Structure formats: structure tokens, C-alpha cells
Amino acid sequence: MNTLAHGEASSYRSFLESGDRKGILAWILSTDHKRIGILYLACMVSLFFVAVIIGVLMRIEQLSTSHHIFPPAIYNAFFTVHGVIMIFMFVLPGASAVFGNFFLPIMIGARDVSFPRLNLMSWYFFIVGALVVIASLFTGDGPPDAGWTFYVPFSLRTGTNIPLGVFGVFLLGFSSILTGINFITTVHRMRAPGMTWHHMPLFVWATYATAWVQVLATPIIGVTLLLVIAERIFGIGVFDPAKGGDPVLYQHLFWIYSHPAVYIMILPAMGAITEVIPTFAHRTIFGYRAIAYSSIGIAGLGSLVWGHHMFTSGMGNAANLMFSLFTFLVAVPSAIKVFNWTATLYKGSIEVKPPMLFALTFVFLFSIGGLTGLIQGALNVNVHLHDTYWIVGHFHYVMFGGTGMGFFAALLHWFPKMFGKMYNERVAAISWFPIFIGFNMLYGGMLVLGYLGMPRRYYTHLPQYSTGHLIASIGGFIMAIGLVLFFANLVVALFKGKKAESNPWGGVTLEWHTPSPPPLENFEEIPVIKDRPYIFNPETAQ
Amino acid sequence: MPFFQQASTAADRVDEVFLAITAVCVVFLVLITSLMVYFVIKYNRKRHPRGEDIEGNTMLEVVWTATPTVLFLFMFYFGWTNFDYDRSVPRDAMVINVTARQWAYSFTYPNGKQTTQLFLALNKPAKMNLHSLDVIHGFYIPAFRIKEDVVPGRDNYTWFTPTKLGSFDIMCTVICGVDHANMLSKAVVVPVSDFEKWYFGGEDAPLPGQADAAAVIPLKSESPAVAVLKAKACETCHSIDGSPMVGPTFRGLYGQKHIVKEAGGAEREVVVDDAYLAKAIQDPMVETVKGYPPAMPRNPLAEGDLKQVIDLIKSLN
Q1: Domain check: are B286 and B230 in the same one?
Q2: Closest chain B residue by Cα to residue A153
């Protein structure tokens, strides 16, 4: 690894300066994996903020039980759209589509992904799917209001614009499948000489495990959503009890995909964290194989736990028993990762710069998310907690505290590499405070509200829950301020940031051996890999 | 509402398992967090300028794989055995039929009494047979720590033994439409003697507990139209006193002009008369009223009931 030829040769042009086309066409017609990654990033951050604004509006509505700013129908559309955007357009494709696209080929020493044109097509599926979902809000008889889970028979009966919204999600699924196929092939076929499986960085392992879940699970949701559309338009009667169909069958099909999807969301973020922590601890990763194999373990066991979303659906005691058991077992590989990350700090030489700050926050918040998952995984406790604010709090700890913070850490970690610009580290660190404090007020408040019995998806609440809602709302507003500060800092850096060095943090994986930003085809010469990926202090290596 | 209100035999069991698992989780979280903070301080770049590439330790990996696995299996076991209790209905439980519809519950007792609030005898087990007339609802009593989805076409059930006197919230936990948040009722727990006085007391027996008179669906009422409104849960969305709710109020409705939207999207003006009301009640989604969410469930009335309801609406001008 240390024999790489790099350095800013006179012929060097970054990928941002390369290519024949100019302006927007240079982006939307480019098959460069790096440009496509940035296209995803721009779209996702914009959509993320749309969903954040909707979230803030929901928190405003919950401030009062007597004055309603939004009628119930609008509130129901709010939580549906907030969920659909956050899940299907930000958290799910997020870390994989943005950082996977940009860094997976570089980290294995490749010039691009296996199928660059297919890669661009995946982005088109993504953007068209997103536009269709957004169009569903403004056309037909009102925005979809069935929640992001689209449970039948309500989603079949409601008069709102469900079919178009569901079709948009179907298109987003295609983007996910095609990206998965691309990454699997890239990892199998495009590794540089000497880049054996155990020489691959752990972000690549995580993205690779994710890609398999994307390819295997996403078609099921695609078919399920098409069945919902067929049910609404042709009345085929698969799910509709009035026609002899079974609503619980829909829930099974939905969660067979949507639970593994949780791991599609979290695994790449875990992978990114696994890059950030050793870089800022300036020492090798602790338990490389444990972390790599636990990704595969999560992807495998995670496919067998979907029923824990349905413990109160009446699917039967034997099913409940098995799903609860697997739910506890899938927590083991996640725990292994947390222990190995913590051990990676031991005898390191730690600098808590902004990416590290967010990475450690990831470990803390994701641990809360995972541990609350144990609490609700116990069957009789789940009966009480299911469909309450507890669940909302729990999955925000996992999705936002986990994937979201992982995404932020990865963005801060790789931003200088991606854009060749340095952001203001002090502002990034300052933005952490409102994000962290607001986060715990908002979602910690929700955990308490849920245990006290506050059901989710209520446009208003009973008076005994007002204090909890007030704390959560204030937390939400504080966090929103932090998020604006966080991204404003990066936007300013794009235009006015100082030029970034090729390796500002002292990282050792391949991306840090290319200039910032990397040239069009990443490497002048394909590197030859001789050793494991995280050797920071060769004299102490075992 | 006091914190951690426990009002059934299941409630103690849920809280016990919850507190036990939470205690283990807190220990884990404190351990991980304090180790992270300790390492970050102790091995700070300033104090410890050279890191050491320690690549792993098989013994540690085994320990921190095995320990959580064993602990998690215990958690699973406690959750499961107590869940088994939740699913095992005692033989002497009174069987009450719960009917859920958008957006109201009603309860039918073995002797045919019907109510909109759930009256229960203290310390007597009761089994709820759950039926839905339209979409999925979630039957939930937080103080009892019980919940079960009410799935159309399925015979779901739950049971509990109330252990405290008082009135406890019943809610719906599965999104079921515009008025999901107002699909509420009360479980009213009274002493056995009070319950029996009401239950065996014939149709005119006064309601037990501090329940309000609105909680009973009169089988023979002076105003049959009002009974229909209650039985069909019209009142959840339409008031008769002019107060604004999800749908238009019945007061002053007759003779008004409304803009309606046809299924195709075209809009036209209608005058609220007998014919329009009949159509709007029997098949609500054919034309929806502008300014209100298109949300009324199809819930047709019998010929005679329909006439009585229309007459009632006329009389409210």
C-alpha cells in the first residue's frame, strides 16, 4: 500500500474539471461514479431538508391540543410523506448510493464501477421515482395518508392518491436493485491486484453485504406494491378481506423487504464509521474479521426477523416465538461491532475532529437504538409498546442516530476528498451541540411518551401527554437549528473553503493516496496491494 | 394520569420484564460510553502521540460474543413466558365482542347489552373478541399493557384482569383514517356488585361507575334516529349541535348549498335535500364535499333508519 505512486503530477486534472460537457449536462449525462455519487448527494440532502421541514411542522402541531394549525388530513399526509422521503429517498439509499458510489471503486483500486451506464440509469430511476412521489402530493384527491407502511385495507379504501405514490416507491426500488447488482459485480470483478477479500477496507465489506440484501429483498416490495396498485385499480382481491384476501399477508410481504431494508440503511453507515474511527484513532481497526463477518451475519439473520413488526397482528404464537428469538440473535453481531469500535480506541492516538465526534455520537446513539430494540423485542413488552411513540423514538435512534449520524460523519470525513475543499472545523463541531442535545430531547422524549401509552400517527394527543410533547417539540426545533448550521457550513465550504490536502486526516486506505479531488479515472496506474488495509503504525503491528 | 399506571395483572408483568431488560441495557450503555470517553481522554493524541496497531484478541471476541448471546436469550425467555400468559385466556373470562369501525368502538356483552364504553368488573378476567367492520384498528389500553390489532376477516382476541377501580383510556393504534386520533373510548372498572347490578338489571338499569349517559347504545330509545347515529358511529365526525368536526355538522345542513367533487374530479353545486342526503349517506365516496377530507366510510343504513336520520337532519334547522 505504501508503494503507491501518487502526488500531484503536472498533468493532473480532477474529475470536476474533466469531461467534454459543460454545466448541468456534465452531471446528468456523466457515467463517472464520482459525479453520480455527488448527484445522489445533492438530491438526497435537498429531499432530507424537505422531510425535516415536514417534521418540524408536525412538532409545531403537537404543541397544542386545542389549536390545530393543520387539519387531521394534512397531518396524516405529513407523517406519510416524511416517512416516505426519509426512508426511501434518504436513509435507505443514502450512505450506499453517495459514498458507495464515490468511494467503493477507489477503495478497491478500480477506475469505475463495473457498469457505469447502468449506474447512471439507477440515478434516473431514483430521481424519476422521487418526482413521481412528489407529484402524488399535488395530484389526485389529496396526498397519500396511509403512513409509509401503506397497510391494507386502509390504503385500498382511502380516497387519497395512493397508487401514484406507491408507484414512485416502486421506481425507487429499481434504483436500489440496479445499484446492488453493480456493486456486487464491481467487488467481485474490479479489485486491484493484491486486493484480496481480507485486504478490502471494511466500508467495502459493509457495502457489499448491503448490495446482496438490495438485490434479494427489494423485488419483493416491488411486487407487493404492484399488487396494491392492481388491488386498487382492478380489485383483484389478494389483500382485501371483503374479497377474501388477507391483510396480514400484505404485512408479511411488506416486512420481508422492509426489515432487511433497515440493514440496507444501517450497514453502509456502520462501514463508514469503521473507516472514520481508525483514521482518527491513528491505529488499526480492532477485530477486522469480526467486523467484516458480522456485516454478513447481520445481512443474513436480518432477513429472518420481519415478523417482529407484527407481534400484535394475530399471526400466531409459534411465529411470534421464532421471530422474537431471531430478533434477539440479530442483536449479537451489532453488539460485536460496537465492542470492536470501542476497542479500536484502546491505545490509539486519538484526535476528536468533527468526523470523529459524529462517529462516536453514532456509536452512542446507535447503541441506544439497539438496546431499545432489545426492550421491545421481548414479546410481552412489545404488546404494550407496538405502534406507540416508543417505536417512533426507537427507530429514529437507529435510523437517524445510526444511519443519519453515520452519514454526517462520512460526509465530514470524505468532504475534503470529494470536493477538494476544507470546511470550517470549528463550526462543524459547534453544530454538533444543538444536534446532539435536540436529538435526545426529541427522541428520548418520544421513548417516554410511548411507554406512557401515546400511540403514533395521532394528529393530536390527550392532555396527559402534553408535557412530553412539549419537550420533544423544543428538542426538535433545537436539532433543526443544528442541522441548518451543519449543512450551511458545508455549502459555504464548497464556494469559499480552503483547498484541501490530499490526505488531511492521515488516512491510509486507497482514497487518501489519490489527489483531492481525485482525477477522472482515480489512478494514473492501478495500484498493487501488498498488505491489510489499516496499518498506521507498522512497527507495532502484530 | 400518574406515571406508570398499572391496572391489570398483565401490567405488572410487562413492567417487570421492561425494568429488568432496561437495567441490563443501561449497564451496557454506561459501560460502552464511559470506556469510549476514558479512551478518548487517556489516549488523546497529545498524551499518546503514537498509536499501537493491536489487531484483535480472540479471547475478547469470544467473551463479547458469548456474553450478550446468553443475556439476550434470557431476555427472550422472560418476554416469551409472560407473553404466553397474555395469550392464555382463563376459562371463566367473560367474553365481550369488540366492534371497531372508522372511528369508534362498541362493545357487545353476552346478554346482548351494547355500549360505547367498556364496563368491567374488578378482578374478573374478561376476553375481548375483536372484529373490524372496515380497516385495521389497534385495540389498546395502556394502563392494562395490552394491545391487539383488530383485523377485518380475522378472529383476533386479547384478555385481561383489571386490578384497579377507575376509568382508563382505550385507544386505536393503527392508522385508520382522518379521525384516527379521536378513536377513543374508556374502560370503566367498577366493583363486582355494581357491575352485576347493571349487567343483570334489565335495559333501564343505570350505568355503573362515573360513566356518562352517552356510553350506552339505547336498544329502545325515544329518538330512534339518535340511536342509529350512535350505532353507526356517525357522531364521531358529524355533530348535531353545530360544533365543527371532521365532517359537516347536521345543524342547519338541510337546504344548504355545497360544492361537491365527483369521482372524475369535476365540481358542481348541490342543494342538500332528501335525495342528496340519501345518496351521500349510502354511497359517500361517489361525490365528496369540497372543504372536507374525502374520508367517510361506506356504512349503508337500512331503508327505515335512513328516513329517520334524514328527518332528524331536517328537524335541526
Answers
A1: yes
A2: B135
